[in-house]
Specification:
Layout lengths: L1 H6 L10 H13 L4 H15 L6 H11 L1 H10 L5 H21 L1 H6 L7 H6 L4 H4 L6 H21 L1 H4 L3 H23 L13 H18 L1
Helix pairs in contact: 3-4, 3-5, 4-6, 5-6, 6-10, 6-12, 10-12, 12-13
């Protein structure tokens, strides 16, 4: 963090790490701010301290640090940031983070981390022992389906971002949104049983999802 702050100090000696030194001209050229980078560092620190999330709002606050800065940096670097685009980008990035958490429930639990709101576990009567099983029972499947629907709604909210930009950036963002939809589709295809291992979309499913997003963006654009 101290070295990162040197990137944004025009009067200092500059950062020490070669990657951060390479970042300096980009920061100057694109007028980047330190906040997204600091958010990612904050997410890393939070992962070392927080292993359970009580509420959905708590999880969203984590995604604000761990995921949303990535989209904000893409918009800033490409010079396309606006309040509306940032809002939709945040929705997409949070959705992608949640989808990844759903795919990685077993792997995360092996590291003593659960990125599913504890209040939802209690409401659907899911225990941590249930999450440690070889396959999901009906309650776990209901929980995963519920969280996946939340992620899908966020993706829907963020999808118009794709049609608001052009060129390579549109293709890139369509890849993000389509990838998220394909991941959620793979989870559904597995019957929302994510415990044997991360459900991954096939390449054809992924390409179809990206294509659908691009066609929608073309109609809106």
């Amino acid at each position: 963090e101290a070295d990162l702050r040197r990137v944004f100090d025009p009067h200092g000696t500059g950062p020490h790490h070669p990657l951060l030194r390479a970042l300096v001209p980009v920061v100057r050229r694109r007028s980047l701010t330190p906040e997204p980078f600091l958010g990612l560092i904050g997410a890393n620190r939070q992962d070392q301290l927080v292993r359970r999330y009580e509420s959905y709002d708590d999880l969203l606050a984590y995604c604000e640090l761990s995921a949303n800065p990535v989209g904000r940096l893409v918009l800033a670097i490409t010079g396309t940031a606006s309040p509306e685009r940032v809002r939709r980008s945040d929705a997409v990035c949070t959705a992608l983070q949640i989808a990844e958490h759903l795919q990685d429930v077993a792997e995360d639990l092996g590291r003593d981390r659960i990125y599913l709101p504890a209040e939802d576990l209690r409401r659907l009567r899911v225990t941590e022992a249930d999450l440690a099983a070889d396959s999901a029972n009906a309650s776990v499947r209901s929980l995963i389906a519920y969280e996946a629907e939340r992620a899908a709604l966020l993706l829907d909210e963020g999808t118009p971002l794709v049609g608001s930009v052009h060129g390579r950036l549109r293709l890139l963002l369509a890849g993000f949104v389509g990838g998220g939809r394909a991941a959620l589709g793979a989870i559904a295809a597995a019957g929302h049983d994510v415990l044997p291992g991360p459900p991954k979309p096939t390449k054809p499913r992924l390409l179809r999802a990206v294509g659908a997003v691009l066609r929608s963006a073309h109609r809106e654009g």
